[in-house]
Each structure stands twice: as C-alpha cells, then as structure tokens.
Q: What sequence folds into this?
C-alpha cells in the first residue's frame, strides 16, 4: 500500500574509525521508528580503509532496519581502496549511488559524490594548466552523472544525495578561504533542469543547516559534526517528510502528521525552516516539486 507520508532521515560524515565499534548504534537504531529510509551522505569512513568499513558495516547491520541509500565522500577515497569500501558497505544492503538512481516507497533517489570547484561567479573555470582543467572536468563529470541519474527518475518526489555541496549557502560558517573546496555550483545545474524535492549533502562540518537552490529546492547540510553542534540533544540525523498524496493540502497534512509524530512539537514551534533555537532538528514536510 502506498504511504501517505514517507519520512527521510539523513546524516553524513560519520567518519567511522577502526576503533568506533558501538559508537553509532545508539543513535542509528533510533532511526527505525522515526523514518522510513536512511540517507548516508559520504565520508562514511575516516581514512577509507576496509577495516573501517567493516566496523561501520557491523554498526549498520546491527542498528538500522530500514532501507539505506548513500554516496561515498572524499575520505572514503583517501586510501585508494574505495572499491573495497564500497563492496563492504553495499553488502549490508546500503544502496551506494555513484551516478545511479533507485526508487523506494515510491520516492526516487539520485546520488553522486560531487566535487570541488567553488560557487557562483567564483566557480573555477577550465583555463590554463592541465591540472586546473582536470579539476573542472572532474566536477563536470560528477554533474553529468547527476543529470543522467535524475533523468531516469519518473517519481513525483526526487531526492538528491551528495557529499559535496551544490550551493554556497550551506557551507557558510566554514572559513571563506576554503569555500572552493567544499562544493561546486556545477552540481546545482542539474537541479535546475530537473525539479527535485530536496537535496542532502555533508562535507562542510561547520557549515549551515539549510539553503536553497536558485529554483527554490531545499538543500540540507547533514554533516554529523554540524548536527551535533546545532542539536546536542540529538537525534543526530535530519528528518524530512514527503507528502505522497498530492491532493492533500499541506496544512492539513501537517496537522495530521503533527498528531502522530514524536518530534512534531519541535517542528510546529519552528515558524521557519531555520531552527537555530530548537532543541531538536525540525521536520520539514515537502510537497512534490512542480515539473
Ligand atoms: Fe567529512
Ligand atoms: Fe568530506
């Protein structure tokens, strides 16, 4: 049966180390009652070693009972063993996207790691040395992979999973000098051509919780260090609820969901979607994006 509301939980930058066994289970296990799908937005391991991936795999299989979708981050590439890391994590049932797409509970997901290059008028251009052109080409390749992943989805809700940010707004809070290394506006271009319900990313540990694309789609920075800093009482993931019934007015849906959801009070108290003073992350409820 089709769900009226699908709840998405998202977190990135777990940076699992080889000694982290037991660290993530307490907060990850709570996700089963609060969400229908868990997104993992890269930097899942700290140095990208198979040893770390095995530790995280045990944490995930022990704690998480709902479907998982994710992408790798730059740390998962650090040791050059990203293929092994990917295999170990996908063996847990985690759907790791790298230009791919999938559909769960009627919601479409498209994911890539993304890349660096900067934002807006400061976006790095393909000019000069071969090394510069290689960086730009890598960023363009990631954007093209995202474009084709989105083009394959026919669902009313399309959710994008990234590690690097597609917008500058959610990296604000980091030193401005490193903005070019935190994401790329080239990742935003596919988000403007294909309507998306929401975008989740990590990587900017000291960034900003929320921003929007030029076309108005919400962008959530769900880096775990950021969530821990902003919401020390947890839960250390961000939840977004998707209205799967297009003809239900959003205000009615909010009331209905508010009567049921344990975290809805915090959401109701949040007049906007910028929750600096809230004790817990607010829950945004999103309508399908218009085509
Ligand atoms: Fe990270
Ligand atoms: Fe990262």
A:
């Amino acid at each position: 049966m089709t769900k009226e509301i699908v709840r998405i939980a998202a977190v990135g930058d777990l940076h699992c180390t080889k000694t982290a066994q037991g660290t993530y289970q307490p907060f990850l296990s709570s996700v089963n009652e609060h969400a229908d799908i868990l997104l993992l937005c890269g930097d899942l391991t700290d140095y990208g070693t198979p040893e770390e991936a095995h530790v995280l795999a045990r944490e995930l299989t022990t704690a998480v009972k709902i479907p998982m979708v994710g992408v790798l981050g730059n740390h998962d590439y650090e040791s050059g063993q990203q293929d092994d890391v990917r295999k170990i994590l996908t063996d847990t049932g985690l759907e790791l996207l790298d230009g791919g797409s999938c559909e769960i509970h009627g919601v479409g997901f498209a994911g890539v790691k993304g890349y660096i290059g900067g934002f807006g008028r400061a976006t790095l251009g393909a000019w000069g040395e071969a090394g510069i052109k290689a960086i730009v080409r890598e960023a363009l390749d990631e954007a093209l992979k995202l474009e084709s992943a989105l083009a394959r989805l026919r669902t009313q809700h399309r959710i994008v999973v990234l590690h690097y940010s597609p917008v500058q707004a959610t990296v604000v809070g980091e030193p401005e000098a490193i903005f070019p290394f935190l994401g790329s506006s080239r990742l935003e271009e596919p988000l403007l051509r294909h309507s998306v319900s929401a975008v989740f990313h990590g990587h900017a540990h000291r960034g900003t919780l929320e921003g929007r694309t030029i076309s108005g789609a919400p962008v959530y920075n769900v880096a775990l260090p950021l969530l821990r800093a902003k919401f020390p009482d947890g839960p250390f993931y961000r939840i977004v609820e998707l209205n799967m019934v297009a003809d239900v007015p959003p205000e009615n849906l909010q009331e209905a969901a508010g009567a049921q959801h344990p975290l809805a009070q915090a959401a109701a108290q949040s007049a906007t979607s910028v929750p600096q003073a809230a004790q817990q992350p607010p829950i945004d409820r999103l309508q399908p994006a218009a085509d």
User: Anything to note?
Assistant: Residues 248-277 have pLDDT under 50 and may be disordered. The longest helix spans residues 130-152. The first strand starts at residue 5 and ends at 11. The chain has nine helices and twelve strands.
